[in-house]
């Protein structure tokens, strides 16, 4: 009986790499000192095509792309990087879950029997897996150390995300040594740059990559975000993006449509805005729009730094 | 801000001792190498009066009984030995949960933020805590090693329960060394004997200590269980218990009322039965009742070894 190890929907680098890494560990645990013993062989699977960043990481360390799985009915599975039914493959309720390794809030997945569930409040599932290797005395192969390091750098935005902990930084240092990566920061930029490749995307694709609608005091507001290692990468596309934002505003009946161009190295965001009332933006961020743009120093998070001040500005 | 560490309702030895032990560990983690860092002081609490076994264990190792807590509204809490809302204190949904350590199936408790959740499929929460001490390099004080050893022996019925794993046995060995307990088995019998003390209990109390109702093909069936280190302890009470079972059968309109007298050392159960149809018992267990009693060799578990054959006998 195979054990399928799977990460969440819309897979990112951590969820793909952690499936590969946890499969390896489960197979090693069959030999000795395992926290659990599985019967068959563990194999990594994914819920969709990897993104360009993940593809780069797999190629760099010479690791094969896992097979895609959609339905897990009747299968034995282990979960990495999620514990919510909404992010699970089809028919999760008809699968047997034997383990969960994660770093998110505790989700709504329950089990009829005791299983291994290790969740730590750290920046990345790969950091939890690093601990599980250490705790069970299993050596980490060079190429898997590379995948784990890349996952940590990706999930923590090169240690800049507010979710980063000391455990993530320690794990990254040790993994870099095993993987033979000398400059962690440089490698992090190389990894994150892959999702900064916007040349082949249409303006609409750029806006919609990570776009959410909000209701702010009865006004429809849409905010997208794209993280880039350098805003120069998108400099020549701004006019085109603004035209597209205007179109989306008309089509969707928005009060305001905005796109956060977040510079993860400089740690700030250029906000492109088309709106019925520019004073709301000024009220929210204490700065005037220049044309359709405003630079917000230190702003990295839509959830924590953009939505709350905007909601306050609309409601006051 | 205090962190209250609490086990499940109707506390047993593992849930009380694990609350004490995890509190100690959380406080140690504030100093160094913690998997999580809490702000205030961790204090153990319990959801009800400890049973005689737990009281014996606390006294033996000179550890104070935790305070009782009923409502956790607005409090910061950590859970040990459960992850189900049904076993939680009042207003759990209005508390902030910062950690869960357990060895059961994964329950329905969710959190809005990432937390530490370590659940292993082993026989006892104390075994998981032993691992957490090892993994974070914290030394276990002698008296806490005693509590942990007693918890493992209690939960695994001195390693005889089907839930026992190699990890439990290893942990028990190492804990016995720290606690200065030379004969683990003997100590286990001493611990388990405390719940075998039936002299001060009425016949009704003995039957109801762990009693459950079942609907078997439309027939009301009640089955109690009491675990004893030696059936001699209850020998002189059997007639009285049978009279009480008959009374309960009348009062409750049962088809069958039974009490399992389980000998945890001999590993078998004497089943006392009053029933409308003795042939059902014969069909279920392949043995005839002698008077109102039948010896079932190797039977330890109501859930796995008594209820299923009885249900089959009723339905066929």
TrEMBL record, chains A, B:
Keywords: Cytoplasm, Hydrolase, Manganese, Metal-binding. GO terms for cellular component: cytoplasm. Mn(2+) 1 binds at residues 8, 12, 81. Its main location: cytoplasm. It is found in: Cytoplasm. The keyword Nucleotide-binding does not apply. Mn(2+) 2 binds at residues 14, 81, 103, 155. It comes from the Archaea. Its EC number is 3.6.1.1. Residues 188-314 form the DHHA2 domain. The keyword Coiled coil does not apply. Its cofactor is Mn(2+). SUPFAM superfamilies: DHH phosphoesterases. SMART domains: DHHA2 (SM01131). It catalyses: diphosphate + H2O = 2 phosphate + H(+). GO terms for molecular function: inorganic diphosphate phosphatase activity; manganese ion binding. InterPro entries: DDH_dom (IPR001667), DHH_sf (IPR038763), DHHA2 (IPR004097), DHHA2_dom_sf (IPR038222), Mn-dep_inorganic_PyrPase (IPR022934). Binds 2 manganese ions per subunit. Belongs to the PPase class C family. PANTHER family: BNIP - RELATED, MANGANESE-DEPENDENT INORGANIC PYROPHOSPHATASE-RELATED. This is Probable manganese-dependent inorganic pyrophosphatase. It comes from Ferroglobus placidus (strain DSM 10642 / AEDII12DO).
């Amino acid at each position: 009986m195979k054990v399928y190890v799977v990460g969440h929907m819309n897979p990112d680098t951590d969820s793909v790499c952690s499936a590969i890494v946890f499969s390896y560990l489960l197979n090693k645990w069959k030999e000795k000192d395992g926290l659990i013993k599985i019967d068959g062989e563990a194999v990594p699977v994914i819920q969709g095509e990897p993104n360009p960043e993940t593809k780069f990481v797999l190629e760099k360390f010479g690791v094969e792309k896992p097979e895609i799985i959609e339905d897990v009915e009747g299968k034995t599975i282990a979960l990495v990087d999620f514990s919510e039914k909404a992010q699970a493959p089809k028919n999760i309720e008809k699968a047997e879950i034997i383990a969960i390794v994660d770093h998110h809030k505790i989700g709504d997945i329950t089990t009829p029997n005791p299983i291994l569930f290790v969740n730590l409040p750290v920046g990345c599932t790969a950091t939890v897996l690093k601990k599980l290797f250490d705790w069970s005395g299993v050596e980490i192969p060079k190429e898997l150390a590379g995948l784990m390091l890349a996952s940590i750098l990706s999930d923590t935005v090169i240690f800049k995300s507010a979710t980063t902990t000391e455990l993530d930084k320690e794990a990254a240092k040790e993994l870099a040594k095993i993987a033979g990566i000398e400059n962690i920061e440089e490698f992090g930029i190389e990894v994150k740059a892959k999702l900064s490749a916007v040349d082949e995307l249409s303006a609409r694709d750029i806006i919609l990559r990570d776009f959410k609608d909000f209701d702010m005091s009865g006004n429809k507001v849409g905010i997208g975000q794209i993280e880039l290692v350098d805003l120069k990468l998108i400099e020549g596309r701004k006019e085109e993006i603004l035209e597209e934002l205007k179109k989306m505003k008309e089509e969707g009946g928005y009060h305001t449509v905005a796109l956060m161009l977040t510079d993860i190295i400089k740690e700030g965001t250029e906000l492109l805005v088309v709106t019925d009332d520019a004073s709301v933006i000024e009220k929210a961020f204490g700065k005037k729009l220049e044309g359709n743009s405003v630079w917000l120093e230190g702003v990295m998070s839509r959830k924590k730094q953009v939505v709350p001040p905007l909601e306050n500005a609309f409601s006051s």
